[in-house]
User: What shape does this take?
Amino acid sequence: MPRRSGARLLRLLVTALLTVTASMTASSHSTATAAPGSPALTPPLGWNSWNSFGCGITEDKVRQAADAMVSSGMRDAGYRYVVVDDCWFDPQRDTAGNLRADPAKFPSGMKALGDYIHGKGLKFGIYQVPGERTCAQATGGYPGSTGSRGHEAQDAGMFASWGVDYLKYDWCSSSGTRDEQVARFTLMRDALRATGRPIVYSINPNSLHAITGAAYNWGEVADLWRTTEDLLDIWQNGNTNSYPMGVGNVLDVTAPLAAQSGPGHWNDPDMLVVGRPGLSLTESRSHFALWALLSAPLMAGNDIRTMSADVSAILRNPRLLAVNQDALGAGGRRVRDDGATEVFAKPLSDGSVAVGLFNRGGGTATVTTSAAEAGLSGGSFTLTDQWSGGTSTTSGQISASVPAHGVAVFRVTGGTPLAATTSRLRGSASGRCVDVDNASTTAGATALLWDCHTAANQLWTTWSGGEIRVYGDKCLDAYNQGATNGTRVITWSCNGQNNQKWTLGSDGSIRNVHAGLCLDADGARTANGTPLVLWTCNGQAGQKWNRV
Assistant: This one.
């Protein structure tokens, strides 16, 4: 079906319903899967050269960054990858077609650089593209043509021989259909796996290309995949998903994709701009906390050789790093959006939940939620402040006074996790799945039938209270509290009303609590784009749904 699209500008210019089955379970289930052989069971932590050095990268700067990873305590905090971005290579391959390092910038060669990085107890990352020219060569005036097209197996073997542990693979072309992207990204993924070396595979399908956003679950192809245009050290701008993007812009695109994240397949909202000059210290703290809650890869982009103690403390916060690296690997969901304030919740492997209270507004605000809204039942909870480490107790209310552009984060322990199941909902009559029209994250979007896939707009989470959620904070809803045959079914901000609650029959039906009518395909049609409506329950196949 049609999805968002948009032309990417040049970055270098700026340097369920749970299926209804006869027997229902309360266990967590997800259809999102990892790329075969993924070595990234937790989000990668590290540093990337681009934001600080661009094409000015040199061997000495990389070695100094590796030294700083150790001396600053970042390595001991869990950061491992030192990633050399674009412009590291000789502008031409050798006579055998092999890649080689730029002899002026990297006189010792990439194998020696990898050895140095490994000698520090760190891992070595490198940059390449699926086309003929890298981003710098295609758009920035950098000479040569050294992309991997036609050299995938050769380059993968060379990377493995150099001891590479991480490949950033950047589309960087306005040409190519999405299917062509899938094929070529998969080609390099398979070449890397064939080397036998566990190389983390990071892709960017958006670079210079129509935005994929929520249109495709790239986690089936790579270990992590960029969700947006490049992130710059901007707090927020007017762009929805076009270059340049700020922290708030990238957050708004990535938060709805949480159901796609998990061990071995991570949404990547781009490198951190913590400590970069365009953000205040409060904004840097918020940026880091939000990325930790999203289960995002945390790749520092600041000059870690010269960072302040305050910036270093943000990047090394042990409590937020533990939230990010939690073994469950759940993507944090935005469970409430009140405009100026928002609430995020990320379930953790020990049964606790990390809760973020976010203030997007221009002045200090009190942000309040409840343990139930965060996904916990019970009557006594302990809150651990993830910034200070201080603790307090509550019967259920979670509240904080949050400065402008700030985020308060608590680990909430106690109680019992509410039962939730995430899956696609496939119609028995159509064989197609319940889908949010055009992958829209806006309240009021139509729920309809479309060919089944595993992107976020077909991943529905059914909660034990009867809600069926998509994108975390949108619920399957009977339009305008309608209770008559033909009432449209839409997604709307979750509000706890009965027109957003559903009961699941053993026959596969999904009945709206308010209307008493069943989820049905309009006019008993089965084609792509058929809107969903409420209709008198009749037991026919168009009203039966299966979790897949």
Observations:
- The first helix runs from residue 50 to 53.
- Residues 1-30 have pLDDT under 50 and may be disordered.
- The chain has three domains: 46-324, 333-417, 420-547.
- The first strand starts at residue 45 and ends at 48.
